[in-house]
Amino acid sequence: MKRRLRAVLAAATLPLLIAGLLLAVRPAAAASLTQVTNFGTNPTNLNMYIYVPDRVAARPAMLVMVHYCTGTAAGVFNSVGRDYVTAADRYGYIIVVPEATREGRCFDVSTPAALRRDGGGDSTGIMSMAAWARQRHNVDPGRIVVSGFSSGAMMTNVLAAQYPDVFTAAAAFSGVPAGCFATTNGSLWNSQCSGGNLIKTARQWGDQARAMYPGYTGRYPRMQLWHGSTDTTLAYPNFGEEIKQWTDLHGSSQTPAFTDNPRSGVTRTRYGATTTQAPVEAFSFAGHGHSLPLDGMFPHAITFLGLDGGANPSPSPTPTPTVTPTPGTAGGIRGVGSGRCLDVSGVSQA
To answer: What contacts 218, CB < 8 A, 6 or more positions away?
Structure first.
């Protein structure tokens, strides 16, 4: 009887043991872009998606990544924003991806509601997403950043102007200054701005951004700008107008403190400092239009935004002397803590 009972138990237990072994060797489900509902105030009916890598940093940074017109969250996640995703897997930061649902899938950076802090436009819904993710994932409040492409780049400028107390840095790929697309007839398109025909002084642009958050006297996010010289969708003069706006917001000179060429046809300028996290950094792509050749260039954005875990200090508004390194010459690099210099033969200070 006992022998028979042991046989029955063994027969019953064997499938469970096999199932347990299969579960033990089965790979864990990979992280994926996931939709979130009921995340908070959402007056324009945006969709929210989030990417949480398999290995999240103990105190992760958070990137709000904003898509282009006609785009979707999955589209930007799997195409032009893919390098941000790969870096999230490496450095353990969270990515929040808003998705426009209106016809054309452009973000509203034009109407009065869209251009006021907490005004009830798209930016209000996006900030609800950021607040939801920040609360649930122990996000480092000193490393909340935003980046976008085309329509998303315009929204990046707007978010950085409206919520300078939330975002520490921003990177806008092929955008326009905050407020440039403003309209009064309900349209979301401003041909004067898109054509590069809306030219203002640096102070005028700065005041337009400051009006989006009246009474704010704190610092503004670092801004990194990218643009192609033959862009016919959002014309190249907008690049210079963005530089005017953000140098004014940082109290920096419009004369570059640093200029170099990270690769052929690309000119990089920095304003207000010479470091990789200067108050304003700009990349101009000679001979390229609205779609930029970004292969190999994203590390510059990731470092600027502080997503690689590097230092993320508050930028100094004090202009620094112009430094124009010449390729092929020795570069002098000084450690702030030690005061010592490192001379590397045959390379630039970049």
So the answer is: 164, 165
Specify the pTM.
0.82
191 catalytically annotated: no
Per DSSP, what are the bridge partners of residue 332? Answer: 343
Say whether 144 sits in a helix, a strand or coil.
strand
- CA pair distance 320, 318, nearest whole angstrom: 6
Residues 202 and 240: their CA atoms lie apart, in Å, by 10
Strands (E), the chain: 33-36, 47-51, 62-66, 94-99, 144-149, 169-173, 222-228, 258-263, 266-271, 280-285, 331-334, 341-344
Per-residue model confidence (pLDDT) at position 310: 57
Which of 123, 128, 150, 284 is an active site residue? 150
Contact 155, 123 (CB under 8 A): yes
Mean pLDDT along residues 157-164: 98
Q: CATH topology for 32-319? A: Rossmann fold (3.40.50)
On the question of pLDDT at 7 being above 50, the answer is no
User: How far is C-alpha 350 from the chain's CA centre?
Assistant: 22
Query: Across all residues in the chain, what is the average pLDDT?
Result: 86
Task: Count CB neighbours of 208 within 10 A.
Answer: 19
The 10s digit of each residue's pLDDT in 127-150 is: 999 999 999 999 999 999 999 999
